[in-house]
Design brief:
Blueprint: E1 3-8, E2 17-20, E3 26-31, E4 34-39, E5 53-55, E6 58-60, E7 67-69, E8 75-77, E9 86-87, E10 89-92, E11 95-99
Antiparallel strand pairs: 1-11, 2-3, 3-4, 4-9, 5-6, 6-7, 7-8, 10-11
C-alpha cells in the first residue's frame, strides 16, 4: 500500500467533499465520522464530485445530477452508468491518509 497524506481532518467538514489535486483527482468525503475516497471525476461528463451535493453517503454530480455511493463508488442514478473507483482511507492523528495508486 502507498499511504499518502491527502489532508487534515479539519479540512473536511461533515457532509462535505474535498478535492485532492493530482493528475487524476481524488474526492474525499467525511460521512458519519468516517472518511471515504473516490475518483473525483464523474464517469458521465468530467465534473468534479467533490463539488457535488452530498446527502448522507450519496454524492450528486453538480452538472447532470448522476448519483454515486460515497462508500462503494456504485452508480445510483443516470446519466452515469459506470461506477467510480474507491480508495482505502485511514486517519492517523489529524492526518487523512489515502492508499493511492502511483501516477
Amino acid at each position: 500500500m502507498t499511504w499518502t497524506k491527502a489532508c487534515s481532518t479539519s479540512d473536511i467538514e461533515e457532509g462535505e467533499g474535498f478535492q485532492v489535486e493530482r493528475a487524476r483527482p481524488i474526492a474525499l468525503f467525511h460521512v458519519d465520522d468516517e472518511y471515504f475516497a473516490i475518483d473525483d471525476t464523474c464517469t458521465h461528463d468530467e465534473s468534479s464530485l467533490a463539488d457535488g451535493y452530498v446527502d448522507g453517503d450519496v454524492v450528486e454530480c453538480a452538472w447532470h445530477f448522476a448519483k454515486f455511493c460515497i462508500r462503494t463508488g456504485e452508480v445510483l442514478s443516470l446519466p452515469a452508468t459506470c461506477p467510480v473507483a474507491t480508495y482505502a482511507v485511514k486517519v492517523v492523528g489529524d492526518d487523512v491518509l489515502v492508499d493511492l495508486p502511483e501516477e
